């Protein structure tokens, strides 16, 4: 088959389809062959005969027409490309699900565009109706395509190989080997040993193999449906929660004790597993020798004690090794420092004695930002805001920075505000943020007094004789994520089936071979059903076996392998898997 | 403790391989640029006549054994490519020795390894098919990408951060590099297919296999890439579940891996659909490979996400 003529046929077919003329499309189907992912005798989505009378198309006809359009391969390709394109904006604009801080930053930076982000749901691309619409259309198209194919494949699996075509000479790899009708029996044996399903027709044998190709194809598409359904179902039955826990402290999975809790539609806070987690120690190792990587984290290990059913047992959580408890997984998400701070008032009474987590930002050396709110006990409401440096060093500008992420030279620097903390306004406040709108800075960069600098074990005076503050020590904290995803096993099973199906559908050739006794000898030829670049060599191989000389070199050239030393590949294209037409026609 | 001297040997080998790739590229380029021989000219005219007549062209590529001297340039180019690849592979292995782990844990190392895989596939695929006509493309790609990698992405070897300490690093990233290698070869074939599908009048283009043969080759190579890419996607999801507590979170790198997978899924379907075979499916192949390059360069460097392992600051 020449490359150019097949290109012309394809071009002609495309043109015919554009006119949406059912008759032309039908003949194009016969001319241009089948699509290689499907059996050659599969009926693609060309309009049915009853749809040809355009004007007389009733509502059911139109529905059927629309359904066939939707489930056609051409629509599937367009939908796939739309899906690829639709996924891109979510990587350009921060998403609420993966980067909530980025969302806030973008909206603050572009207040004029906020309406556009909201109108197009650019911060929730992957749950937006327009993205979901493409996914749903694609799934419907897929199901509508796969179900008829399953029916067709089921029938094909149970049927015998088809009648031998009248003229084998039109088919791929046609050749004649010596032999007569008595050898057809032997030929059938050879084909059976090669794994073909065979059927005798008079003086010929018809053979087919590779049914697993279409099975794999259907498994591949079916497992996509399984994966999507499992993902959707999983979001309804799972939960996800987070908790920041300081060394020496613990939490239980009762909702009130968690920092965040998201539950699926069918899960209530009462359904959470009943266990408690106590963080004994968070062990962190930093690189200290490699000059190019000083301070790079090497290992995080959280040593915990898990309490369930009244019993306590130890456990470990590491970054790539979550801990599983009662079907839920515990992950180590991040870490930081929590200085222990005590505040006494002017009378010497302790008004605050807590371990305060400071949040590490982007700084690899862990300089961390924290807030202490003192609403009661002092002469007025006091807010403290400042940094914790695990290894403090003073810069030339006078400011401090951390030069190493581990605790070598800890320092707390705090700015002091007095006034109204705004806690009584009823608006919920973050414990990590200080609203300074109604407060005055009394110590810090914008105040007459410098910020407080407190080393470990030190006590310094608060401004205006308010009292004293001491930095008693520092502990690490871990942020632990607890979640349950009941369907992720299904997703994994779907993914494994998907790979298996993909391998079968792309690598197993589906082909028919025929051996027919004629006056000239045994005629041998093959037909590809789908991509089958090695069909010719398969026919050659069969011919060799029938001749009885397995080791002889190929009698015909063009087994698809360029001879060594030839610089240009053979111009003869390997079989494109396009048969000249259905041999039974 | 990483050994600095191994890393400098590695760099030396990589720089040498770049130089040899460049010379191989020149040899291949001269081979491509050579003019039509008289015999070839006659074949070309015959082909034009038959094509004009509407009948199937029956010309085959002129037997190359007839002019062994002329084809020496391609042989020289290929021999140099093999030499450069050996140097390149040695440099990659030495980088792994220097870092005491697999040499694909940051952007520089991934570039080093994946380009070695691209060229390696090109070298070994010759055992199956003579695809030396891709030499210009492959050696050009290798020279430019290695140059960009050493100049822009180089970082000294550092230990693995905790998130990368997993056997999935070995599997997931290596399979991604394998997939990239097959896609790279496939897009070279698709570019040639596009050149071949229109009358160019260029001697080099006319010397190539037919457009439909190139399309078949590109498809067969790209399908292997697609299988590896599917595996990369799934292995990545399994690893993400271990490391980050969810198997899929639409992280920027996940988004682009998905986009690439969907584009190539479209490509595989296009091959099986009337009106999408030929030029259109070749363009899809190229869009897919462009997305891979975009994912590796722009997404790595400029996009914010969890896959921040480029090692660049």
Walk me through what this model shows.
Chain B: This is Cytochrome c assembly protein domain-containing protein. Chain B: InterPro entries: Cyt_c_assembly, Cyt_c_biogenesis_CcsA, Cyt_c_biogenesis_CcsA/CcmC. Chain B: Residues 41-64 are annotated as: Disordered. The complex is a heterodimer of chains A (585) and B (313). The relative contact order of chain A is 0.13. In chain A, strands 4, 6, 10, 11, 12, 21 and 22 form a 7-stranded antiparallel sheet that branches. In chain A, strands 13, 14, 15, 18, 19 and 20 form a 6-stranded antiparallel sheet that branches. In chain A, strands 1-24-23-3-2 form a 5-stranded antiparallel sheet, with helices on one face. In chain A, a hairpin with a 2-residue loop joins strand 10 and strand 11 (328-345). Chain A is an alpha+beta fold. Chain A is built from 12 helices and 24 strands. Chain A is elongated and about 120 Å long. Chain B has a domain at 160-313. In chain B, 73% of the residues lie in helices and 0% in strands. The longest helix of chain B is centred in the last third of the chain and has 34 residues, at 211-244. Chain B is flat and about 65 Å long. The two termini of chain B are 22 Å apart. The model of chain B is unreliable at 51-69 (pLDDT under 50). Chains A and B meet through helix 1, helix 4, strand 8, strand 11 and helix 11 of A and helix 3, helix 8, helix 9 and helix 10 of B.
């Amino acid at each position: 088959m020449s490359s150019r003529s097949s290109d012309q046929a394809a071009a002609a077919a495309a043109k015919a389809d554009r006119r949406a003329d059912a008759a032309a499309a039908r003949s194009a189907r016969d001319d241009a062959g089948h699509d290689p992912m499907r059996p050659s005798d599969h009926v693609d989505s060309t309009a049915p005969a009853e749809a040809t009378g355009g004007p007389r198309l009733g509502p059911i006809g139109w529905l059927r027409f629309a359904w066939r359009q939707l489930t056609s391969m051409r629509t599937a390709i367009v939908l796939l490309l739309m899906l690829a394109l639709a996924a891109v904006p979510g990587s350009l604009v921060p998403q609420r699900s993966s980067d909530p801080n980025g969302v806030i930053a973008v909206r603050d930076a572009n207040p004029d565009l906020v309406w556009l982000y909201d109108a197009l749901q650019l911060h929730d691309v992957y749950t937006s109706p327009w993205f979901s619409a493409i996914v749903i259309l694609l799934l419907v198209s897929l199901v509508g395509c796969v179900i008829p194919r399953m029916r067709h494949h089921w029938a094909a699996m149970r049927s015998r190989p088809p009648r031998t075509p009248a003229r084998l000479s039109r088919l791929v790899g046609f050749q004649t080997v010596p032999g007569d009708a008595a050898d057809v029996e032997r030929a059938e044996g050879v084909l059976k040993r090669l794994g073909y399903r065979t059927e005798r027709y008079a003086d010929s044998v018809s053979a087919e193999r590779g049914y697993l190709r279409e099975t794999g194809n259907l498994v591949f598409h079916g497992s996509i449906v399984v994966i999507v359904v499992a993902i959707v179902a999983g979001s309804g039955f799972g939960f996800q929660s987070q908790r920041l826990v300081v060394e020496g402290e613990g939490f239980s999975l009762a909702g009130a004790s968690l920092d965040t809790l998201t539950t699926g539609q069918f899960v209530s806070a009462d359904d959470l597993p009943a266990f408690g987690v106590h963080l004994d120690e968070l062990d962190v190792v930093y690189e200290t020798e490699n000059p190019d990587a000083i301070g790079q984290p090497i290992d995080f290990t959280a040593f915990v004690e898990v309490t369930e059913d009244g019993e306590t047992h130890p456990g470990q959580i590491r970054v790539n090794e979550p801990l599983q408890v009662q079907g839920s997984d515990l992950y180590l998400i991040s870490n930081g420092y929590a200085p222990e701070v005590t505040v006494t008032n002017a009378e010497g009474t302790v008004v605050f004695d807590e371990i305060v987590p400071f949040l590490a930002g982007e700084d690899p050396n862990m300089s961390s930002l924290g807030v202490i709110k003192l609403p009661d006990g002092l002469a007025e409401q006091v807010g403290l805001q400042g940094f914790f440096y695990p290894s403090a060093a003073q810069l030339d500008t006078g400011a401090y920075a951390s030069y190493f992420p581990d605790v070598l030279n800890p320092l707390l620097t705090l700015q002091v505000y007095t006034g109204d903390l705004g806690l009584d306004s009823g608006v919920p406040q973050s414990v990590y943020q200080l609203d300074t709108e109604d407060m005055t800075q009394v110590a810090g960069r914008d105040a007459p007094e410098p910020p407080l600098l407190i080393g470990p074990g030190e006590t310094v005076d608060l401004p205006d004789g308010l009292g004293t503050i001491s930095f008693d020590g520092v502990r690490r904290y871990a942020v632990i994520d607890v979640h349950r995803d009941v369907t992720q096993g299904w997703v994994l099973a779907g993914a494994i089936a998907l790979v298996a199906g993909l391998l079968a559908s792309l690598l197993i050739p589906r082909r028919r071979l025929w051996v027919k006794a004629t006056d000239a000898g045994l005629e041998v030829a093959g037909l590809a059903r789908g991509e089958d670049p090695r069909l010719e060599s398969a026919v050659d191989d069969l011919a060799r076996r029938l001749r009885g000389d397995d080791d002889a070199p190929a009698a015909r050239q063009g087994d698809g392998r360029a001879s060594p030393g030839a610089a240009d590949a053979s111009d003869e294209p390997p079989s494109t898997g396009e048969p000249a037409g259905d041999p039974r026609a | 403790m990483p050994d600095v001297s191994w890393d400098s040997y590695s760099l030396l080998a990589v720089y040498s391989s770049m130089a040899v790739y460049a010379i191989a590229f020149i040899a291949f380029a001269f081979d491509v640029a050579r003019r039509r021989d008289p015999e070839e000219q006659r074949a070309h005219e015959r082909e034009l006549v038959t094509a004009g007549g509407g009948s199937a062209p029956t010309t085959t590529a002129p037997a190359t054994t007839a002019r062994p001297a002329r084809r020496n340039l391609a042989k020289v180019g290929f021999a140099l490519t093999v030499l450069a690849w050996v140097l390149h592979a040695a440099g990659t292995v030495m980088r792994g020795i220097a870092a005491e782990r697999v040499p694909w844990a940051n952007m520089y190392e991934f570039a080093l390894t994946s380009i070695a895989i691209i060229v390696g596939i090109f070298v070994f695929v010759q055992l199956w098919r003579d695809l030396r006509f891709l030499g210009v493309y492959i050696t050009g790609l290798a020279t430019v990408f290695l140059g960009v990698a050493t100049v822009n992405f180089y970082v000294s070897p550092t230990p693995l951060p905790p998130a990368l300490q997993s056997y999935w690093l070995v599997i997931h990233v290596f399979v991604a590099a394998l997939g990239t290698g097959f896609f790279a070869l496939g897009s070279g074939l698709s570019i040639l297919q596009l050149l071949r599908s229109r009358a160019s009048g260029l001697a080099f283009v006319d010397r190539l296999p037919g457009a439909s043969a190139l399309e078949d080759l590109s498809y067969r190579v790209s399908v292997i890439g697609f299988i590896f890419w599917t595996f990369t996607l799934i292995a990545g999801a399994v690893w993400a579940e271990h490391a980050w507590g969810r198997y899929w979170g639409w992280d920027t790198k996940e988004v682009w891996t998905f986009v690439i997978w969907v584009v190539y899924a479209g490509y595989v379907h296009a091959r099986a659909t009337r009106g999408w075979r030929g030029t259109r499916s070749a363009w899809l192949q190229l869009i897919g490979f462009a997305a891979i390059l975009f994912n590796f360069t722009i997404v790595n460097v400029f996009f914010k996400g969890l896959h921040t392992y480029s090692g660049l600051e």
